[in-house]
Amino acid sequence: MRLRMLAPACAAGVLVQLLLSQPAPAQTRPCDRLPADCRSVMEEKTEAAVSSPAVEASGEPAAQAATPEAAAAPRAVPLAPLIPFAAPAAPAPEAVLPALPAPVPTPFDTGAVRLADADSYQDAYHVLSKENGCSRFFGGPANAVEVLNGLALKLRRKHLGDEFAIRQTGDYTNYHNLQTGGSYRLFEEASLNTSGPFSRHAETYGRYDDRTIGRFRARSRPGRVLILLHELGHLIMARRGGWLLPNDGHDAALSARNTRAVEGHCLGELLALGE
């Protein structure tokens, strides 16, 4: 028998047909390629994780599954114990600090500032710069001293005859201090009568020996301070509105009532000045 030789092209076609007719190899998962001992370890760990005892509502561990089907069933996840939660306490209210009192203006240096009567100014400052019934009547130490300083700078010595101790005339300017809350006015001109009770000249002493300012002698220390305080009452506005003392320039009776009103609030401090 004589063998026939296949042409090369035909042989190649047969080979391709044979390769295509072979079944495709099954795809292998990564785990299938692991060694047998590795797979067994993983299976044991998986089984241990799935078969952890669950906590029942009573808190006792649940009985382990008796069959592989029960072991494969999903287990309840253990619940963390509840921790009591206290609501945060309400924040404490912020402490409200009392407002600090306004600082009292410093006294003038009587050696550097020209004043009509330095001694009387210093006595009045001593009375008003402290917390007492007299300074409170004038709106408190800070307000009272502020107005006293303003009046002291305005006062000029002038001969006015026998009628007035101090006379304030002309237009006036209103002031309001936001810190103290006080309001007051200052006149364009303020004159201290050199012939009146403030006078220290010997020729005028006799004319005022029998006169009084309130209960005090006209030329005494408390008498002169009472005159200054009386004038402050015409300058400071009252809390209720209007001036502490109504104008009394040509009304002697009203002027005397105004003086008694100031004396009633400042008597203790005036008596402490001595004569």
Describe the structure.
The chain is α+β, with helices and mostly antiparallel strands and 275 residues long. The chain is built from 9 helices and 5 strands, in the order ααααααβββαββαα. It has helices at 8-21, 36-50, 68-72, 118-128, 133-137, 141-154, 202-208, 221-235, 252-271; strands at residues 155-158, 166-176, 183-193, 212-213, 216-217. A 3-stranded mixed β-sheet has the order 1-3-2. A two-stranded antiparallel sheet has the order 4-5. The longest helix is centred in the C-terminal third of the chain and has 20 residues, at 252-271. Mean pLDDT is 76; it is low at 1-16 and 28-63.
Mean pLDDT: 76
Strand content: 5-15%
Unreliable segments of 5+ consecutive residues: 1-16, 28-63
The number of helical segments is 9
Strand count? 5
Distance between the termini: 170 Å
What general form does the structure show?
elongated
Order of helices and strands: HHHHHHEEEHEEHH
Rg value: 54 Å
- Percent of residues in helices comes to 25-40%
What structural class do the secondary elements suggest? alpha+beta
Q: For the report, how would you describe the main beta sheet?
A: 3 strands, mixed
Strand order of the largest sheet: 1-3-2
